[in-house]
Amino acid sequence: MLTKWCRAFPGLPEQVAEARHFVAALLGHWCCADEGVLVVGELAANAVRHTLSGKPGGWFLVVVGFGADFVRIEVIDQGGDGVPAVREVTGLDEGGRGLTLVAACAKEWGAKTLPKGSSVWADLVWEGA
């Protein structure tokens, strides 16, 4: 069972930094704090850029769950047309690397469709686990 902390953010680009600060404060000096900040930054940016969360009045929710040997970073958004997936990009592409970074940091990651949105999550391993 996970112990969870969550916070809702307005769906504005500048709120991605606030989401990173939220996760940094929760993870403190744990071994996966840097990875957690990177992961939430990528997932929150995707929510604002690619879903209804980035529309006027939109929002996204960050959930941090602590397990015995991992921490789960989850971003719940208001949904959109696309399905989150790792994309193949070339060296000249300006974007499209976010989920590749998430996959590189995470033990596991995934996405699920919710009745009124979607959830993208990544599990980060505690050091020594």
Report on this structure.
The chain has 129 residues and is an alpha+beta fold. It has three helices and five strands, in the order E-H-H-E-E-H-E-E. The chain has helices at 15-27, 33-50, 98-105; strands at residues 3-10, 59-66, 70-77, 108-114, 117-125. The longest helix is centred in the first third of the chain and has 18 residues, at 33-50. The protein starts with a strand and ends with a strand. The model has no long low-confidence stretch (mean pLDDT 87).
Name some characteristics of this structure.
about 130 residues, alpha+beta, 5-stranded antiparallel β-sheet, 3 helices, globular
Q: In this structure, how is the largest beta sheet organized?
A: 5 strands, antiparallel
Structural class: alpha+beta
Fraction in beta strands: 25-35%
Run of helices and strands: EHHEEHEE
Any idea what the shape is? Answer: globular
Instruction: Indicate the multimeric state.
Output: single chain
Cross-sheet strand order for the largest sheet: 1-2-3-5-4
Please estimate the helix content. 25-40%
Q: What is the number of E strands?
A: 5
Task: Return the average pLDDT rounded to an integer.
Answer: 87
* Total helical segments: 3
List the uncertain runs: none
Termini gap: 17 Å
Query: Over the alpha carbons, how many angstroms does the gyration radius reach?
Result: 14 Å
